[in-house]
Write a structure and sequence with these properties.
The chain is α+β, with helices and mostly antiparallel strands. It contains 2 helices and 8 strands; from the N terminus they run E-E-E-E-E-H-E-E-E-H. The chain is about 20% helix and about 40% strand.
Length: about 150
């Protein structure tokens, strides 16, 4: 079996926001996993769900490992089946996520070999090269906060 190919990969990605509706993004680089072939891109924090672990437990662990902070998850869960062909290879990812807020810790890039920047952005001033899944989460967050405006 090849990594990311020939099996269903289960992942967890949460969009971290604050009370000012800023979002926290990490700039992932192509140095990990043998290279994705995507160069660099801005993304939500998260990663792989381990055997026997819930998606919620996994994302809390992944965010702690990546950013040195504890989070609380909120709003209903969103699950997505992503079946796609990429570079002539069929991939199947099952992911879960929604929104989270930091409740404790000092924000720090704990995995510089995987991502080289961690920044907060206003919704009106987002960076370029955000991956499509994160863009989808940002649009869902905008719709969520419009419910309470």
């Amino acid at each position: 079996m090849k990594r990311w190919v020939d099996y269903i990969w289960v992942g967890c990605w949460w969009l971290i926001v604050n009370d000012q509706h800023q979002i926290l993004l990490i700039r992932r680089t192509d140095k990990t996993q043998g290279g994705w072939g995507w160069g660099w891109f801005w993304s939500r924090p998260g990663g792989t769900v381990e055997f026997g672990e819930s998606i919620e437990t996994a994302v809390i662990r992944e965010i702690k490992e990546e950013l040195n902070v504890d989070v609380v998850l909120f709003w209903p869960k969103l699950y997505a089946n992503d079946i796609r062909e990429e570079n002539w290879v069929l991939k199947h990812w099952f992911t879960g996520g929604r929104f989270a807020k930091i409740i404790w810790g000092e924000l720090k890039n704990m995995e510089p070999e995987k991502h080289d920047a961690v920044e907060r952005f206003d919704l009106e001033h987002l960076p370029e090269n955000i991956n499509e899944y994160t863009t989808q989460s940002i649009n869902e967050y905008k719709a969520y906060i419009s419910l309470f405006a």
